[in-house]
Amino acid sequence: MSLVQDMSFALRTFAKAPLFVAVAVLRTREIGIRMAIGAAKTDVLWRVMREVLILLGIGMAIAFPAAWILTQSVRSQLYGIDPVDPMSIATASLAIGCVALFAGYLPTRRATRIDPMCALRYK
I want to staple 20 with a disulfide (CB 3.0 to 4.6 A). Which of 8, 53, 104, 119 is the partner? Predict the structure, then answer.
């Protein structure tokens, strides 16, 4: 890949991270309430991560067929290049999955570590 393609891939991958961060940050108050009434940190963490995984799965389920359809439309314009390269698809999927998991895990872990009373006051 060229430098421009690498930069484009990185930008597209990290552009999805705010969605997964928002899942955790917007639920800080809820996490505080759950922690205040005695929920275990692992249960709260798993609850948010499950939502991140569902969003990731929905995104991948939409993206794979859309990418396949779009590659069929540009196939005639590519000479000597296979538009459906399994290694590229696997690498992109793995990178997007890792970014999504870290983007959901880090804010959630931070929210479970703060004092429940501070989380209840969080806006």
Answer: 104
Rounded to whole angstroms, the Cα distance separating 21 from 73 reads 34
> What mean pLDDT comes out for the span 27-47?
84
Q: Report which of 64, 52, 69, 68 is spatially closest to residue 16, judged by C-alpha positions.
A: 52
pLDDT at 55 over 60: yes
Predicted confidence at residue 15, as pLDDT, reads 61
Number of neighbours of residue 107 by Cβ within 10 angstroms: 21
What is the rounded distance in angstroms from the CA atom of residue 123 to the CA atom of residue 89?
39
Total residue count of the chain as it appears in this document? 123
Question: Could you give the CA distance from residue 59 to residue 23 in angstroms, rounded to a whole number?
Answer: 15
